[in-house]
Amino acid sequence: MSFLAFFFIVVSLVSFVAAQLILKRAMVASTTTGFRNARFVWKVTAGIILMTISFFLTLGLLQRFDLSYLYPFQGLSVIFITLTAAVVLKEKLNLRLTIGALLISVGIVLVSLS
Amino acid sequence: MPPHTTSLDMTTDGKRQMQNRPFGFGNPWLQLTLSVACVLVSEFLLKRGATEVANTDSAWSWTGLNGLASPLVWWAILLIIASFISWLYVLRYIPITIAFPLSRVVDILVPLGCWIFLGELISALRWCGIALVVIGLALVAKPIAQIEERL
Question: In Å, how far are A1, A29, B21, B88 from A34, measured between CA atoms?
Answer without folding.
Answer: 46, 8, 17, 14
